[in-house]
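General statements about sequence and structure are easier to judge against a single worked case. No coordinates are needed to read the tokens, only the vocabulary itself. The sequence in question and its structure tokens are set out directly beneath this paragraph.
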Amino acid sequence: MIRIAVLLSGRGSNFAAIHEAIAARALDAEICAVVSNRDDAPGVSRARDWQYAAHVIDNRAFASRADHEAEVLRVLEAAKPDFIVLAGYMRLLSTRFVAAFPNRIINIHPSLLPSFPGVDAQKQAVEHGVKVSGCTVHFVDESLDAGPIIVQHAVEVRDDDTAESLSARILVEEHRAYVEALQILARGRYRFDGRRVIAS
């Protein structure tokens, strides 16, 4: 069993998918902490309803990003997670933060990386005219949306798609892909080969 800490800033739909997979015994994990930088995040309410240890650490209450991250790290180190799961956490992590949990921070991005990193990936995909997009679960490193890839799910981009309609279909796959990636990590049967994550 792996211990997971979830970082979120909003609705927490990927967090909910992970919670449901654990409850259904489809994922051998436990959520040891939920941390949000927003006290109004719906994901925090969900965490409290489900009896998780929920922490609101509002970045606006700190003088600097370094001070805010130091408090987040303090909470995480006390929770002792095996992996940190970013579930819509709208804060860029510093090199110091990433170094505290090497190859242990996981993120999901709504495109087939390395295509369309950064914000508004679905809008970028529609405007670029690609025929296929999707989502990527990857380890977090010091570069934006560039860490080793664990799982990717493809989604067709339709001719009449908007950023919103594509986002909705990608989100369905995000919920599946995140659980699939965490199942790989929970089994512990994976290795790195350069940039490649090879599951066995």
About this structure: The two ends are 17 Å apart (CA to CA).
